[in-house]
Design a protein that fits this description.
Blueprint (H helix, E strand, L loop, with lengths): L31 H15 L17 H6 L8 H17 L10 H14 L5 H15 L9 H17 L2 H13 L2 H9 L9 H18 L7 H15 L8 H13 L8 H16 L2 H14 L9 H6 L22 H6 L1 H19 L10 H12 L52 H12 L5 H14 L1 H4 L8 H4 L2 H6 L1 H13 L2 H9 L3 H5 L12 H4 L7 H5 L8 H18 L3 H9 L2 H8 L5 H12 L2 H4 L1 H6 L1 H10 L22 H19 L14 H5 L9 H14 L5 H7 L1
Helix pairs in contact: 3-5, 4-5, 5-9, 6-9, 7-9, 9-12, 10-12, 11-12, 23-35, 24-28, 28-31, 30-31, 31-34
């Protein structure tokens, strides 16, 4: 299988011998050209070690104004003026001597009703002008506002008003018409290049719907009861199919599929994806709602409450300093071989220093709750200074902020958090050890105190029982949730729904695609300046466009990172973690695609949540990377030990399985696929005449059933009797013998 990861760090050596010495024999030094490339790579790797800690708070979305601004590209800025002109021309014909903000609410509703009526005209051009007038209302009637705050306020007010008058349903019908417009699709397919003019109608419709979803989705304490009721009604309409139509999210998914297949290249895919994201988040809920669903689901299944909220714990963590890359054998195949390093006195002293640090770290008692002695603190602080080549200490010696009291374990059986570690340890399975000494029983007791049973484990066990005993257990009651009709929510709804989507992503090469994305200078990607404040909505609608100079373009942009890029990086890492967690075959894909150096370079970004998910992905593959990799990456190993949750019976830090291959675990993937197909068949493909359907054994009941017969049955009944009954000889002896 060809490695889809882009060439760079972690790529195999050019000669293909795999010994990492640049093309010579064993122990032969690298060529001058290879040494120069290695030095260049070192400079690139170490050039950003002094990256400041990024003050980024992970959440469902960015600020309200930023999310609205995300909808528009800078090439669409001229259309703000066009929308305003279309509204003012129509408004002057309907209302005399007043502006929109001066009207009473009843007059505003009457005008909106007139706009919706004028949307039903046959003329495509006139319909577009009216749609632009509606878009201007959704954008906040900025021509009558004096500040950005006013624009955002009236945009939200107008969106609620538009929804109450049925605007969303009207625009949904128009969207169906544009999707089914075969003339526009064929015209776009014939063009050598697609321009922004090819998607004008779709962009206007999607913009209105996005603004309505985003403004109504936003919850504020000052919202009136009418607005709160409208929000819940809107959420229900988007979650379930209305008027025998598919849910709105499925329509957007079909647009994505149509665009990706090349059948509709003119679709504005950015707006489609943004609207799809907001609809899914609005209907399924964000992280807080997901956490509440977890608590509710565990209570329904009789499981112990959760020990902590993952998002809240990560928010209390501090970012670590990036590790050095000079001795990382996986970072560059041009580095000298390990035998050369061991032969040098200085290198040996450095490796021993790292080993001594690890020994001291391992000698500390994980579950020791008393305060450490002052001598230990001084000694550990001294060890932290012994870094090689000026390497910053990854642990930073700063204690982690403990989780808030509200997140403390509710069960009396659970032990306290180990000192200095942010997570309560877990263990997946424990068994009694009959006849063994008391100390081992104490160990088992400790394991059972930390035993964690996930919702997925319970769902898998229930599914196995339903497959074994379909008759005695009866038919499963499936609640009609939004997720049951639309990855975290899938996993909570049912584990096999999550696995179904995950397996599709894996088979579509999602894992190497994400690794290819991260095989770049992630720090430069995250800190890239790709937005111009003076051109962003709503600023561009209030202020006159200044002369475009270097100073004016950079004015007001004091962010140290791009929120969008950092948010997407974290989400991609979380997705990669979801796909590979507890899946040996997929973990081996990470090893085969040489993900360790790619992921390790991402640790240069000093943001706690991003580093956490990078360390998780490194942890699951350490046993396949070998002992030498672990020796050369002790700081990374220590960071994993400190920041990632401990599985008490996991041998990640010392296990060795370097001879494993991806095909060694293919049976696991095949078994999973069989279980998914059985689940889908049992829940969604149940035929009416199934062999497990109840049988009516009452003769009178069977004979009394009404059967739908064809119209000509009465005319051909006697012929049928003669042909099928009377003319057929019956051999009674043979019939008796057979029975």
């Amino acid at each position: 299988m060809e490695d889809p990861v882009a060439p760079g760090a972690g790529s195999p050596p050019a000669n293909g011998n795999g010994n990492g010495n640049g093309g010579g024999g064993k122990g032969k030094p690298a060529s001058p050209k290879g040494r120069e490339a290695f030095k260049s790579q070192r400079r690139e790797s170490e050039g950003s070690v002094d990256c400041p800690t990024l003050e980024f708070e992970y959440g469902d979305s960015d600020g309200h104004a930023a999310e609205l601004s995300e909808l528009y590209s800078y090439t669409e800025n001229l259309e703000f003026t066009t929308n305003r002109r279309c509204f003012e021309e129509d408004f002057k014909t309907q209302v005399q001597g007043k502006e929109w903000l001066e009207l009473e609410e009843d007059a505003q509703k009457a005008y909106v009703m007139g706009l919706l009526d004028r949307l039903e005209v046959v003329s495509r051009e006139r319909r577009l002008k009216v749609a632009r007038a509606v878009l201007y209302l959704a954008q906040g009637t900025f021509g009558e506002c004096d500040s950005e705050v006013d624009v955002l306020h009236w945009s939200r007010y107008n969106c609620f008003l538009l929804y109450q008058m049925g605007t969303f349903s009207t625009f949904l019908e128009l969207l169906h018409m544009e999707i089914d417009n075969s003339q526009a699709c064929s015209s776009a397919l014939r063009k050598p290049a697609i321009s922004i003019a090819d998607s004008t109608e779709l962009r206007v419709l999607l913009s209105v719907m996005y603004l309505m979803v985003e403004n109504i989705r936003l919850e504020r304490e000052t919202d009136s009861c009418r607005w709160r009721t409208a929000r819940e009604t809107f959420r229900t309409e988007l979650s379930f199919s209305m008027h025998n139509e598919e849910p709105f999210a499925l329509l957007l998914f079909s647009m994505v599929t149509k665009f990706c297949s090349g059948l509709a290249p003119h679709f504005p895919i950015k707006k489609v994806l943004l609207l799809l994201w907001k609809v899914v988040m609005f209907t399924l809920g964000g992280f807080e709602h997901l956490q509440a669903l977890k608590v509710q689901k565990r209570a329904e299944l009789g499981l112990p409450p959760l020990a902590e909220d993952s998002i809240q714990v990560v928010k209390s963590m501090r970012a670590a300093s990036p590790p050095s890359y000079t001795l990382d054998l996986g970072e560059s195949q041009l580095a000298p071989p390990p035998s050369k390093l061991r032969g040098r006195r200085g290198s040996r002293r450095q490796l021993l220093t790292k080993q001594d640090s690890l020994d001291i770290y391992n000698e500390r008692d994980l579950f020791k709750t008393e305060e450490p002695a002052a001598e230990e603190e001084e000694e550990s602080a001294g060890d932290g200074e012994r870094t090689l080549d000026g390497e910053l200490d990854l642990l930073e010696q700063d204690p982690l902020v403990p989780p808030p009291p509200s997140q403390a374990p509710l069960s009396a059986e659970r032990v306290a958090f180990p000192k200095g570690l942010p997570w309560a340890p877990k263990v997946r399975d424990t068994e009694t050890l009959v006849g063994l000494p008391r100390p081992i029983h104490e160990s088992v007791k400790t394991l059972k105190q930390h035993k964690y049973i996930s919702i997925a484990d319970v769902q898998i066990k229930n599914e196995e029982e339903l497959e074994k005993c379909p008759m005695s257990l009866g038919e499963e009651v499936v609640p009609e949730t939004p997720c049951e009709i639309l990855l975290k929510h899938f996993k909570l709804n049912h584990i096999y729904q999550f696995e179904y989507v995950s397996q599709h992503l894996v088979f579509a090469n999602c894992i190497p695609l994400i690794l290819k994305f991260f095989n770049q200078n992630i720090l430069s990607y995250i800190t890239a300046k790709n937005s111009i404040s003076v051109l962003d909505y709503p600023c561009c609608t209030i202020q006159d466009l200044p002369e475009l100079t270097t100073e004016s373009l950079e004015a007001g942009d004091n962010n140290q990172f791009c929120w969008r890029n950092l948010f997407s990086c974290i989400n991609l890492l979380r997705l990669l973690n979801k796909l590979t967690k507890w899946k040996h075959s997929r973990t081996m894909m990470l090893v085969v695609f040489k993900s360790a150096p790619i992921l390790k370079r991402a640790l240069k970004v000093k943001q706690a949540m991003l580093q956490l998910y990078v360390l998780k992905l490194l942890k699951i593959q350490t046993k396949y990377l070998g002992r030498q990799w672990r020796k050369s990456n002790m700081k990374t190993m220590s960071a994993i030990y400190q920041k990632v949750r401990h599985r008490m019976n996991d041998d990640w830090a010392y296990g060795n399985d370097i001879d494993a291959r991806p095909w060694d675990f293919q049976a696991e993937e095949c078994t999973l696929r069989a279980n998914i197909e059985a689940f889908n068949s049992r829940r969604y493909d149940r035929p009416q005449d199934s062999e497990f359907s109840p049988v009516d054994n009452c003769l009178q009941s069977v004979l009394g059933q009404r059967l739908d017969l064809p119209e000509d049955f009465h005319y051909s009944y006697e012929i049928w009797l003669e042909r099928e009954v009377f003319s057929q000889p019956i051999c009674w002896e043979e019939l008796l013998q057979n029975h």
